[in-house]
Amino acid sequence: MRKPCCKKKETSYYKGAWTKQEDQKLIDYIQKHGEGCWRSLPQAAGLVRSGKSCRLRWVNYLRPDLKRGNIDQDEEDLIIKLHALLGNRWSLIAGRLPGRTDNEVKNYWNTHLKRKLMQMGVDPKNHHLRQPGTNLSLVPKNQKIASGTQDWTGLECNNNFANSNEVNSTTSCSEGNTVSSLPDLNLDLNIGLPLVEETQC
DNA sequence: AATTGAAACAACCGCAGCTTC
DNA sequence: AGAAGCTGCGGTTGTTTCAAT
């Protein structure tokens, strides 16, 4: 049986929004000791949070390399393309967007892009073009498809391969499916090993 | 100015997969 | 081999903000 890396002790953790003081404690601790061993981190850092919560806070909001702010058109297009290829694999998608997190991409998808695709008559689940007329009533009259977004007609790539971890640049849609609407799609989907500062628990 | 509903964002929960013993 | 711990991911929910009425 594996030895726990820290004394297991169930505490009633704080939940809800993080305070500035908590953020600072977490930042200070990680700057000193690096990431890793999330379970023991809270106690070591003087936080009354679960390791999970600390990890999430760091990964999604405190990491210095995060690019905060609006997602631009290029990023949006890339998200759509990657989602067509990978499905809801947000961490993989976020990995192709420097400075963006899986949570951010997921939220953006759910709040912006899903609706946008539906308005365009595209099923956001599989990126298939819906039957003409379906849901098109959602599109305001005279509204053109946003600039920078392609006509997704013909996008019929199934996502079977997305269930495989072997996502790489040679992956392509199976016969009969087409990504003809993605002419500039040149994705290197090799999963690079992250530069992790090794820390021993 | 107050109310209400929608949109956007932040955080939690549960589960799966990997690692260790 | 399998049980248990840990981490990371994806789904979901809660809270805040903003616009419309």
From TrEMBL:
Tell me where it mainly resides. nucleus
Its lineage opens with: Eukaryota, Viridiplantae, Streptophyta, Embryophyta, Tracheophyta
Q: Which Gene3D superfamilies match?
A: Homeodomain-like (1.10.10.60)
The subcellular localization recorded is: Nucleus
Domain HTH myb-type: start-end pairs: 15-62, 63-117
Signal peptide residues are none
Cited InterPro entries:
Homeodomain-like_sf, Myb_dom, Myb_TF_plants, SANT/Myb
Query: What is this protein called in UniProt?
Result: Uncharacterized protein
Oligomeric state and partners? Can form complexes with MYC2, MYC3 or MYC4.
